[in-house]
Amino acid sequence: MKFCRFVIRDASPSTSAAPLHGLIEDGGVIEISGVPWGAWTRGSRSLRLADVRFLAPVSPSKIVCIGRNYAAHAAELGNEVPKEPLMFLKPPSSIVGPQEPIVLTPYSQRVEHEGELAIVMGSTCSHLRDSDDALAHVLGYTCLNDVTARDLQKSDVQFTRAKGFDTFCAVGPHIETDLDPSNVLVETHVNGASRQSGSTSLMVYPPAFLIRWISRMMTLLPGDVIATGTPAGVGPLVAGDTVEVSVAGIGVLRNPVHAPQA
Ligand code: ZN
Questions:
Q1: Number of folded domains that form the chain
Q2: Residue 6 C-alpha to ligand 1 middle, in angstroms?
Q3: Quick one: 195 and 218 in the same domain?
Q4: Does 102 share its domain with 123?
Q5: Distance 43 CA to ligand 1 centre (A)
Q6: Is the bond preceding 19 in cis, omega lying within 30 degrees of 0?
Q7: Ligand 1 centroid, distance to 103 Cα (angstroms)
Q8: How far apart are CA 227 and CA 249, in angstroms?
Q9: How far does residue 34's CA lie from ligand 1's centre (Å)?
Q10: Per-residue pLDDT tens for 206-256?
Q11: Which of 54, 76, 92 is the last residue of a domain?
Q12: Range of 50's domain?
């Protein structure tokens, strides 16, 4: 299944412009009630793709990110592969959806893309044991751009500012529930040119390991997002660029890059 979140385009006063959840099926969207990471039921209303505007498909309590989870990416920034997963958080306020602009900031002279596979949790889990089936707690997967102010990441002791600006977490275009995350290609293109390409099979710590490990520090809630790290090839974004993160079997997350707001 492909879960999406959307608003109806040009909603008339009688139609709600509030975000809705749906299933993408047969070239259209079937509205659902409830949320994909909780109880939901299939509605009767179906909409044409042309009549909806897609939003980020998630509204998590937290976005847990893993750094340096591909050896080639750790090496390109002069870092060692960490002895245990390097974890940080992005604030949910940094999320934008497909086609929404990533807005640069005057506080950074070097903003970079990080295309990643993201896990969307489907049920609560904490203190998972090695024998627990971590992937049973997953709702599905989506594409994520962990936009990073690289100069601030280097100058600050921790990553909060570099990773936490508004619009620095692009997510979408939808949640795919039918995906084996063990060997799918994660790619980033900027203005159509390939920048990053790597299989999830190259992850140092694969998804099931990450879920178990994170759950021992913080309870993962339904809808929470885990960004699993970026392959090699990170590089700059400038105003006017179009950046695309794609994961094979999911789709393409496309965002324009805008200059800082005056
Ligand atoms: Zn990242």
A1: 2
A2: 26
A3: yes
A4: yes
A5: 36
A6: no
A7: 18
A8: 17
A9: 30
A10: 999 999 999 999 999 999 999 999 999 999 999 999 999 999 999 999 999
A11: 54
A12: 2-54
